[in-house]
Amino acid sequence: MSVAIHIEHVVKRYDQTTIIPDLSADIQNGEFFTLLGPSGCGKTTLLRMIAGFNSIEGGQIKFDALVINDIPTHKRNIGMVFQNYAIFPHLTVRENVEYGLKLRRLDKAAMRQKVDDILRVVKIEEYQDRLPERLSGGQQQRVALARAIVIHPSVLLMDEPLSNLDAKLRVEMRGAIREVQNQVGITTVYVTHDQEEALAISDRIAVMQAGVIHQIGKPHAIYTRPYNGFVSTFIGHSNLFRGRIKIAGSEKYVVFQDGYQVEMDNLGPVADGQEVVVAVRPEEFSVQETGLSCRIHSRVFLGKYVNYTLTFAPDMLVPNQPAIEFSQDLGHAEKIFELGDSVTLRPNKAKINVFTADQSANLIKDVKQYA
Amino acid sequence: MRKRLLNWDFWTLVTVLAAAVFGLFLIYPLFSLFASSFQDPATGSFTMKNFIRFVERKYYYQSLINSMWVTTCVTLLSIIIGTALAYFMTAFKVKAKGSVEILVIISMLSPPFIGAYSWVLLGGRSGVLTRFLSDLFQTEWPSIYGFSGILLVLTLKLYPFIYLYVAGALKKIDASLIEAAESLGCSGLKKVATVIMPLIMPTVFAGGLMVFMNALADFGTPMLIGEGFNVMPVMIYSEFINEVGGQANFAAAMAAMMVMITSAIFLLQKYAVNKKSFTMSSLRPLQAKQLTGWKNIVMHAGIYLLVLVSVIPQLTVTYTSFLKTSGQIFVPGFSLNSYITVFDNLALAITNTYAYSFIAILAIVLLGMLVAYITTRRRNWLTNIIDTLTMFPYIIPGSVLGITLLLAFNDEPLILSGTATIIIVSLVIRRLPYTLRSSSAILYQISPSVEEASISLGASPLKTFFKITAVMMIPGVLSGAILSWITCINELSSSVILYTGGTRTMAVAIYTEVIRASYGTAAALSTILTLTTVLALLLFFKVSGSKDISL
Ligand SMILES: Nc1ncnc2c1ncn2[C@@H]1O[C@H](COP(=O)(O)OP(=O)(O)O)[C@@H](O)[C@H]1O
Ligand SMILES: [Mg+2]
Fold first, then answer.
1. Which of A158, A265, B175, B362 has its CA 20 to 30 A from that of A84?
2. What is the interface pTM, i.e. ipTM, of the complex?
3. Which residues form the pocket of ligand 1, taking CB atoms under 6 Å from any ligand atom?
4. Residues B520-547, mean pLDDT to the nearest whole number
């Protein structure tokens, strides 16, 4: 039933402006695949090309081996969940869910069975005879999900389905969506600009910017081994330092501008003296005798953590960063710092990432762009 | 290549069909009109003679001046009365507000010439009021004929448009805007002048345009009470009737000039409004305040007096219809004579009216929904043109449309003159805009993703339209269709040019009966017409559950 989706060199243009220049991705059968990127990067555009609401100006999209470029939406057998739910206001909850099944001419008994099942799965049985306008946002979301899944589509497409819900409901529905997707095992393409949501829900994530996919990978891989500078700063926070490679015999080092050096045993091919950018996440610092010296600029208490922003000598850093952050785990902290304190922080060499000077690739061994 | 073929879907077909309908029944006739206006009646060659004749003789061009003058006065007066009424009804508590509103709508929906005719009954040379007042004061009561009569009748008939428009706009002003003004130290009249007036200005302009076009195009009123005060529609009509047999070139030239003038005014208004347009929606509308003391009394007296004067024509007509008649003359006492005569002699006019209007409204609803869909959801150059074309009937006076249709379909290959078809066509073209506008308005409120949801579930676009979109559109379509229906059954100015003995409608019959001085039968017909109008309106309120009709 469910299919793999192959996106091969697709192009999207509106009149003269090219939104997607050349994009490829392979989505496996049954996986939960997320398109993540800043607003306006073309996620919705790509999703609607898969759905058939947008034309494809170049390349092709295949469901398994079948090219779908010229198949109209209503014959693609997709399920779609919309940002504003798009529930039919003149039909009851049950009639909404039945709508797609009726078009498929299922017999009455089979239809009732299927609808009952799915209403139970998404937990809206008790509202089935209500008109949708009297449902809460979360309930409407469940109706939309049930309506899309009950037809056993080949792929399930969701465009920011949780963005209209409040924070608590968002977390709850996120769990519900993942659970339902697991139960029915359907290939799902999910669009969001919320990185936390993407990390929590996905099998794999494609990080997009300006119509280009920067990296595809599992959430853990994307967070710990971002392929380039954009991914490392868009997903979570990264502090970017200017550095240089030093090779001494069989040892390789990364040297910061103040001369502090870290021995790296996981670098790929590099040259002695090569300029690099070192990315250190706020939680990858620890307070030590030796390391990078800086001052505490501000402090925010967050419960489990204390988040500090830091001041470094300007030439240490890649310019134009919003903030340099250090997050101190309160479970192990010996002392909380005051504003203006001097501290020495050591980056964890097993965790930090090293990019080329233009930040376009990761120099750590075996980091893949598309995995 | 494959793509080309796929694009030829149902909506392309609708687009082409709509373009054909408007092309055949609007563009081609207008073209015929302009062609005819430049033709020499004798030789058929190109000439400017018709236009020259118009500007040379005072008899003709005076009617244009008269038209513009009386129309401008009617528009200004309607704006003042309608806006004031809307403001008081919204800002203050008015007793029996619901009834006032319904009476105002009813006075708007009867054909204006019924108003004209009943003011003749009241204030004409031998009118009830005239005799009563001259007996009382021994002086001449100002004449109901001519300029002042037209001004009175048309203003009373048209201020309700402004009222409905402006009341709608006032409902959309959020109370927080007024509170913001008050918090900044603004109050009373200053508040009205600096906040409320600017907010409703675009609406006043839009309503004013509608009133202007209606007043300029009105044929029945000046025909009945204009007397020496000639206006363009009457001039066009009588020249057209006199020119029978010929090509009606001179009438066509005058009609063409009217189209040019109304187009120019329309474009000007559009330009003025577009420059400062904004949308409002209020979560918390203004609360009506309770006035006290003499202010409250004066306000109520003013409103009730206005409504009374507005419905007097209806009451007079109804009363007259039950008077005893002998032949055409009224004799003392009451009877159903007039109704009996109507059903004996004029039954055909009644069945015609409902049959034509019924067919027309079916076409209007279907066409309105489909065309609204292509112009809002399938935007391309052709649908943009269609969108503009659909505005045309707003600005083409009914009698002009009637003449254009006659000129276009008088000859091979398509002879429609004298048929019911041509009357139905004119009804559809003229009254489509109401349904079309309200259909587009509701389509803008329906999120396209609802349709996409249906398509994604496997329904074809066509099936989606009928199962989802059309169903969701119904409330909006209905609110426009009710106006289309009411204006269809009351239509006079185009029908009076297109009818023949067998295709007479009630409005036409009323008009001819009044001309023949058969006031009893005219009153009976008017009463029937008003009754069905009111019934349609009440039915609509019941079905839609609201008291809003969209303009
Ligand atoms: N119909 C359209 N015509 C022209 N440009 C469009 C259209 N739809 C989207 N765009 C442009 O395409 C880009 C990507 O939009 P979209 O896919 O909606 O972004 P996202 O969903 O990632 O926020 C935006 O710059 C947007 O302005
Ligand atoms: Mg989007």
1. B175
2. 0.78
3. A 14, 19, 37, 39-45
4. 82
